[in-house]
Write a structure and sequence with these properties.
There is one protein chain. The protein is an all-alpha fold. It has 6 helices and no strands. The longest helix is centred in the middle third of the chain and has 19 residues, at about 35-55. It is elongated, with a radius of gyration of 20 Å.
Length: about 100
């Protein structure tokens, strides 16, 4: 148990304010510009392409394309969360107080 407490203490001291890093902020700013349905259409396109490859008996390509579907859907969820929540609360508060 002492090891777990020590790890928790170290983890809490790494980022005590729980703020986003500069890279995460830049990614969020760019992904928030994309329409949410883009990822849904990309997933649907991957499903359709996978189906076409399966019909053409190109099984390896069909599997390859089909495996992109969950990735596109997860990116869509991330995009939606970024749009709804935005950056961390400290950044949001500084934007509202400066405006």
């Amino acid at each position: 148990m002492a090891v777990i407490e020590k790890l928790k203490s170290k983890a809490a001291s790494i980022n005590p304010d729980k703020r986003e890093g500069e890279v995460a902020k830049a990614i969020e700013e760019q992904t928030a510009k994309l329409p949410s349905d883009l990822f849904l259409w990309a997933a649907a396109g991957a499903i359709g392409t996978s189906l076409l490859f399966k019909i053409a008996r190109k099984d390896h390509l069909a599997l390859f394309m089909g495996q992109w579907v969950p990735s596109f859907l997860l990116l869509g969820i991330y995009n939606k969360i970024v749009k709804v929540s935005g950056h961390d609360k400290a950044t949001q508060n500084s934007y509202t107080t400066n405006s």
